[in-house]
Design brief:
By secondary structure, the chain is mostly helical. About 50% of the residues lie in helices and about 5% in strands. Strands 2-1-3 form a three-stranded antiparallel sheet. Helix 1 crosses helix 2, helix 4 (about 95-115) packs antiparallel against helix 5 (about 125-140) and helix 4 packs across helix 6 (about 170-195).
């Protein structure tokens, strides 16, 4: 599908070959949907969208466990007015710290709006939906809340006896709601502190985004510098291959640069004048031996 879409995009632009930009546009088309060129967006709305997406990018760049950023765009596609794309790491388990960093990155958009404009908008709907589900899972399913404790109300079989009501009391339900609210508000306060400490860089990034409409990892490196916390995937890619050690071979008395003539090499003899078996014969005799190894 990706190659077919890239070929169609190249054909629409009368190109003779498919290049990298065609593949990038194809990814945008498949994941984000059709570009809404006819969608009317005012200059003030576009500025809010730019700072919203710049907030996501800034926080994800500065916290340790957020997924590596791929690109940020304010080009409207489908139902989205803008998007920040990440490359999720393959994890089998996730820690509380990783979940909290991801929650801060998701709240970066709304926090950026509040810091920059002094008001918030409805543009953070999908972000709030995501972190609310994540917070409830941390408290009521994964047992990551101290007050609720190591308890999970998750039914892995899907055949719970408590289908008509929740498997906990109203008091516990109220406690879960309170802990979820504390979790989200604590992450929001931390997110605003991060953005306030880097407000100049946030503004610079948003202005670049307004100018280019699409920015990539390299653009963030120019503003923030290299990311302090690199992912395991990035660390593995940056490791240089080991240099193979020099192997020294014996030359049977020949000079170091003089080639060895196998015909001149005579088999060694023991004291009784019998010829010793060659190395290949020794290896073969050991391999064919039925004797059991001795125990130390």
């Amino acid at each position: 599908n990706l190659c077919n879409e890239a070929a169609l995009i190249a054909a629409r632009h009368n190109k003779l070959a498919i290049d990298k930009q065609d593949f990038l546009s194809a990814v945008d088309r498949i994941i984000g949907g059709l570009e809404k060129k006819n969608k009317i967006i005012t200059l003030s709305e576009k500025k809010v969208i730019a700072f919203h997406e710049a907030g996501h990018a800034t926080v994800s760049w500065l916290v340790e466990h957020a997924n590596p950023l791929v690109k940020v765009t304010i080009v409207p596609r489908g139902n989205s007015l803008g998007a920040a794309w990440y490359l999720p790491e393959e994890r089998q388990i996730t820690t509380k710290e990783q979940l909290m960093d991801e929650m801060c990155a998701a709240l970066g958009g709304r926090a950026s709006e509040e810091i920059t404009f002094g008001k918030i908008s409805t543009g953070a709907l999908s972000d709030l939906e995501k972190i609310t589900k994540q917070a409830y899972a941390m408290v009521a399913i994964y047992g990551l809340n101290e007050k609720i404790g190591n308890i999970s109300y998750y039914d892995s079989q899907g055949k719970s006896e408590f289908e008509m009501y929740k498997p906990y009391s109203e008091k516990t339900a109220q406690t879960i709601d309170e802990e979820v609210s504390k979790l989200i508000e604590g992450a929001y306060v931390r997110t605003k502190e991060i953005l306030l400490a880097h407000k100049d860089q946030l503004t610079q990034l948003a202005n670049v985004l307004l100018e280019k409409e699409v920015i990539f990892k390299e653009d963030l490196e120019e503003i923030f510098g290299k990311r302090a916390y690199e992912s395991e995937r990035e660390a593995l890619q940056s490791v240089k291959p080991d240099v193979k050690p020099e192997v020294k071979t014996e030359t049977n008395g020949a000079a170091p640069d003089e080639p060895v003539d196998d015909a001149k090499v005579e088999p060694s003899k023991n004291k009784k004048g019998k010829t010793k078996p060659a190395n290949d014969e020794l290896v073969g005799s050991i391999a064919n031996s039925d004797a059991a190894p001795s125990a130390d």
